Amino acid sequence: MSGAEAEVTERRPAERDELHKREYDLLDTILQDMADAVVAEECYVHVQPRRVFVRVHPDRLREFIRYMQREHDMWQVSTLSGRDLGDDLQANYHFFLNDKKIAITIKVNVPRDKPEYPSITDLVPGVDFVENEIREMFGIVPVGHPNPRRCELPENWPGEEYPLRKDWADPRGLMKRSKTTGPRPKEEL
Amino acid sequence: MTSTSNRTVVIPPRVSIPIGPQHPALKEPAMFKLTVEGELIVDAEVNIGYNHRGVEKLAESNTHIQNLYLLARICGICSATHNGNYAQAVESAAEVEIPERARYIRTLIWELDRIHSHILWLGVAFHEVGFDTAFMYTWRDREVAMDMLESISGNRVHHDMNTVGGVRRDVPDELVPKLLRGFDKLKERMRYYRDVVLHEKTFWDRVAGVGILETDVAKKMGAVGPTARGSNVPVDVRFNDPTQAYVPMMDTGDFEMILNDRCDVAGRTIVRVEETIQAIEMCSWLVKNMPDGPIRERVRPRIQPNEVLARHEAPRGELIHYLVTNGTDKPERIKVRAPTHANWVSMAHTLKGNYLADAPIILAAIDPCYSCTDRVVVVDADEQKMELVPLDVLRVRANKWYKENPRRDE
Amino acid sequence: MQAALDMIVELLVQGFWVLVFPGIFFVTSLALLWEWIDRKVYARMQNRVGPLHTGWHGILQPLMDFLKLLSKEDLTPKKADRRSFAAVPVVLLVLSFVLCMFLPIVDMNPAVPGVQGILSFEGDLVLILFISTLIALVIILAGYFSSNPFGQTGAARTGMLLVSFEIPLILALVTPAFLTGSLCVSTIMYRLTQMSPAYVWLLVLPFVIYLIASQAELERIPFDVSHAETEIVHGWQVEFSGKKLALIHMAEDILLVFSAGIATTLFLGGPYLLEFIPLSIFSVEFAAIAATTWVGWVYYPLVFMFKSALVVVILSNMRTLFARWRIDQIVRYGWKVMVPLALLSVMLVQVALVYAFPLLGVM
Amino acid sequence: MPRLGKMQKELLKSVGSKPTTVIYPFTKEGLNIPKGLRGRWTYDNPNMCTGCKICERVCPSGAIEMIRCRPEDVQTKTGFRPICHFDRCILCNQCVESCPRGVLKLSAEFEMAFLDRNDMVIY
């Protein structure tokens, strides 16, 4: 699954019609205020109502979060989901602006060989557990996490194996043992 | 009498009492290490992840249809929410409009699932506090909701009503009067239980002023669902981000979000009971003005590449499905954030400062829904050390110990 | 030779009394019956069926549970002191049997007027109170012997609970003694039946206090914080298993028999029922027949069981009605509500005896 | 104002009324089983089956297995027919919906307890 093909076709930007007016106002204010911290061509309003996707440089993430909390009163954190884009890894922070009633997803891309980005647990305590989870599952290390501990996988799980990455092909055949259709390694898909 | 001048205040030694992973108060295992001074909980640490089954990795190799059933099996009580939310995610990924009647039936199943889940929680809360009579009564009256669900979907727990593009079974017209009668009976019983919750002194003493979660702390720690609404935090996906049949229902304007500013377990209990009554009114509204028409839409199994954030108000809180499709009939990535996962962070905060006897009711107050793997905690009393021991190591140790001192000559 | 024979017969008869009829066998079967009544009433009030399959409507269920527990494996924790750990259930059982010996079920001693229990002597009320405190002490020691954090917490809670409910229990039991001026349970009961009904109104408040205090002594629902299964996993009973647990459950049931028995004896008029009817053929002739002939041996136990069953039903209704209080709430209500109420009732009785009754000319 | 003994009236009322618990193995009348209950998997009209393996592919828990046709069976074009290991089956009714010929059906029978897992197979 080459990264480029997913890049091109994955986003469904909505046209600037009356239906998505509020989302586009929010997006414009964000692009205007934090132009340098944001990768402009990958920020868009989704066809689905009340959804905005924004991509931020890893080193400017904390500043962007503080800006959003200050300007747009963003306090409702939903979750943090990781993604494997082939050549680099992506962490998506999902927030919900309660008064504007818009769900904003902040994407942070980190290179596969050095997957680190500054953790935001002290700004948003709600992401404490999910940052540990993304470190175990994807190997994306949120630097500066107050108590990094193993919270999802068992203790004897080898440290360097990250199960949710696409190239993790289940060396010990755990998946094969389950008699369901079971996932086959990437190449058989 | 000792003279009061040199009276020494004895601070009870700090004892660390592990509640879990196997404990009668926890229906499913998570490990809470409570540091206790006498009867007061001084520090609490929440260890979860005992029931990680790798659903997200498995879901990446199933087709969307099979994933509907896999995700429904994540949680036994609120399976309709996972099922419905995933169907909703795939439909918005395929950008397909499902028929109006299917929306109404899907929302009806969601609300019925909320009713039976809240009544189940009320019974468990009564049992945690030792009020077994009310536990028996609430679970008897829950059968009315379960029978309705069974007559509509054919199965008590895993309804599997939704498929990509609509609903699988229709609500026949001769069933409607039976449903309305059931709703009235349920509403009358729920009013009685609201009365019991407010007026039974022994229950109210155990619930009032226990497990305080202030509003700003709840906001900061990302609490969701009745736990947050019990602390006056306006978090409800049905009102903030309505989808399916919630859109016309919110337009009528005769339902509004239920909030309570008590910030303790009593507040969460009242919110859940009020929500059940509101859910019953929603259900009767849905059944009364349900439009007729088709209930399914043909959707090709291969979904166009898209990334979708589907949100739904599960009985326990806000459920998130972040779905990324890649053109094949299998999802590229599906992230499932169950509502209980969000409440763990605020759980450690609410446990502090309460009595040990309140721990079970506080744990039950967030209505936790998690399940188990094979880990156990070995607490060595004399060396005061505690280690997490996986089951197979434990089994090896047990066999070795029994070999050394066989029981016969004891 | 004749004396030896008489002595042997005397021993056999005494043995029969102590071991079989009003003694151990009768009390144990009564304990199982009360547990069945308790579970059945508890279930029917919760709209359930309750024990059903063993015997008529599940009447043998408590016996089956007892036998099943006897056959289970009996473990002793490594850290616990083996001998004292094994001694606790036996001591509890023996103490509860001794307590039941003072109940006047059948007339054991015709010399003294009124129905006398097996061991009735002047001053056995004080001994009863001492033994019930002793049982509380043994329960606390059981918690510590089991060397388990849950066990120790349970034992500490039992201690707090029983200390705060000992005083109301004592004051409630002592009030009938004030009225009748005797310290023997059987004599108190006999004199109460002779007194005029005005005295009965004085006993209503102590009866209520006694019921609440005995519910706390037996550690049942509103006060069962010491072995609350959802918090500390059966508290002080957590390490007992197999035969030891069976004996502990039997001891608890016999304590229930004793509590109900004391309630009927001191507050509900003991084994007398028909004698209270003012008609002469009942209160005089029948009383004489019952006191002397074998009729008493059948009539008195039946009345005793009937009244005890009533008390058991009241206790299990209390068990159904309430949720479990926290230990600090129990101790607070114990000292803030129960102790003042008990003192008030004692003052009421004194005022009535010294001032009101001479004025009203009540004998 | 909370007071003690709120449920006393309800308790006395239920002492008189019939208990709602159904003594299941002995009497079945209490369980109001609805008409459309999804129960045991049945291989209804074998002559319609063409052995197209859609049901095997679509089953979420891999409970359906295609085996060679028995001689007395009907002649399916590909010579295969489905059998169900219903210890794995989750009764989701997806195979019945996906089957183009309507060969399979879920009956309303829900008692499927067996002592041995190997003989929990429907032919």
Structure description:
The complex is a heterotetramer of chains A (189), B (410), C (363) and D (123). With 410 residues, chain B is of the alpha+beta class. Chain B contains 15 helices and ten strands. Chain C is mainly alpha-helical and 363 residues long. The radius of gyration of chain C is 21 Å and the shape is globular. Chain D is 15% helix and 15% strand. The chains are: A alpha/beta (189), B alpha+beta (410), C mainly alpha (363), D alpha+beta (123). The interface between A and B is large, with 53 and 50 residues.
Q: What's the main sheet of chain C like? A: none
Cα-based radius of gyration of chain B, to the nearest Å: 24 Å
The biggest sheet of chain B amounts to:
3 strands, antiparallel
Give the class-level CATH name of the domain at 64-346 in chain B: Mainly Alpha
Domain module tally of chain C: 1
Please identify the oligomeric state: heterotetramer
- Give a count of the beta strands of chain B, DSSP E runs of length 2 or more: 10
Query: Helicity range of the residues of chain B?
Result: 40-55%
- What's the shape of chain C? globular
- Beta-strand content estimate of chain C: under 5%
The CATH topology of the domain at 64-346 in chain B, please? Cytochrome-c3 Hydrogenase, chain B
List the total number of helices of chain C. 14
Q: How far apart lie the N and C ends of chain B? A: 49 Å
In the sheet with the most strands of chain B, the strands line up as 1-2-3
In the predicted model, the low-confidence regions of chain B spanning at least 5 consecutive residues are 370-392
Structural class of chain C: mainly alpha
Poorly predicted spans of chain C: none
Radius of gyration of chain C: 21 Å
Mind telling me the CATH superfamily name of the domain at 64-346 in chain B?
Answer: Cytochrome-c3 Hydrogenase, chain B
Task: Tell me which CATH architecture of the domain at 64-346 in chain B applies here.
Answer: Orthogonal Bundle
List the helices and strands and how they pair.
The complex is a heterotetramer of chains A (189), B (410), C (363) and D (123).
Chain A: H1 3-10, H2 21-33, E1 44-45, E2 51-56, H3 61-71, E3 76-84, E4 88-97, E5 102-111, E6 116-118, H4 128-138, E7 141-143, H5 174-177
Parallel strand pairs in A: 2-5, 6-7
Antiparallel strand pairs in A: 1-2, 3-4, 4-5
Chain C: H1 2-19, H2 24-45, H3 61-70, H4 82-100, H5 124-145, H6 149-180, H7 185-194, H8 198-202, H9 204-217, H10 229-232, H11 243-267, H12 280-292, H13 295-321, H14 327-360
Helix pairs in contact in C: 2-11, 2-13, 3-11, 4-5, 4-11, 5-6, 6-7, 6-9, 6-14, 7-11, 9-14, 11-13, 12-13
Chain D: H1 8-16, E1 41-43, H2 54-58, E2 64-68, E3 80-85, H3 94-98, E4 104-106, E5 121-122
Antiparallel strand pairs in D: 1-4, 2-3, 3-5
